[in-house]
Amino acid sequence: MSNQQPQADKRTASQRIDDLERGLIGMYQTADNMARDLMTMKEALKLLGNKLDAVVKANNRGNPASQITDEVISAIMLENNVEELKEKVTKLVQQGILVPSEEVIASSFLVGKEIDDQGKVVNPRLQFTLSSLQSEDLRKKILGAKPGQLLTLEEGKLKLQLDEVYNLQMPKAPEQSSGNDSSGQAQPQ
Predict the structure, then answer these.
(1) At residue 189, does pLDDT exceed 60?
(2) How far is CA 3 from CA 6, 7, 140, in A?
(3) What number of H helices and E strands is found in the chain?
(4) Closest Cα to residue 88, out of 49, 127, 47, 48?
(5) Is the pTM of this model over 0.70?
């Protein structure tokens, strides 16, 4: 047995802290990459689930016109996506975050579809806040529009059929029914 003492770390406290910081930065970067990969896998699984659902629906329809082809599966997947977007809006309306409106204002949430010059629906559902548009000119063209209007936003481009308009509302905090005021202090009754 040797009686060797472990060699003392000759680094200063500052050097040790720097080494720890570098190690932590590497761990954070690895964790960030893992989170990004996890989100990618989540999206891939969602897409795969949608495709599987489309295949099952195409198979269950059973008529010869809806054979399982790429076109049929794509159409059903698009229907599934549209339905998912509708459900999200319905939930936001039920929660009071979206309130139906008769005119587009700066804080509006819009639902519509893209239509080409021949009247064919190119994209059956778009939903976005007006403020999310990067072009100030586009926002100005949509401002004041009403549901049902067909808007030509740019010459030679697709038109926007405005189907639904909602105003964004901040959700109300649940009222306290226990006799407390807003500071959480009990009040005499």
Answers:
(1) no
(2) 10, 12, 82
(3) 3, 5
(4) 127
(5) no
Tokens of 69: 């082809």
Location of structure tokens 């006799």:
179
pLDDT of 182 reads 46
Cβ atoms of 165 and 101 closer than 8 Å: yes
Burial 122-133 (b: 16+ CB within 10 A, else e): eeebebeebeeb
DSSP annotation string for 106-152: TTEEEEEEEE-TTS-EEEEEEEEEGGG-S-HHHHHHHTT--TT-EE-
Instruction: For residues 111-130, give the mean pLDDT.
Output: 92
Beta strands in the chain (DSSP E): 98-100, 108-115, 121-129, 150-151, 159-168
Domains of the chain by residue range: 15-94, 96-168
CATH T-level fold of 96-168: Chitinase A; domain 3 (3.10.50)
DSSP label at residue 158: -
Q: How far apart are CA 165 and CA 110, in angstroms?
A: 5
- Quote the CA–CA distance of 1 and 3 in Å, as a whole number: 7
Return the higher-pLDDT residue of 120 and 171.
120
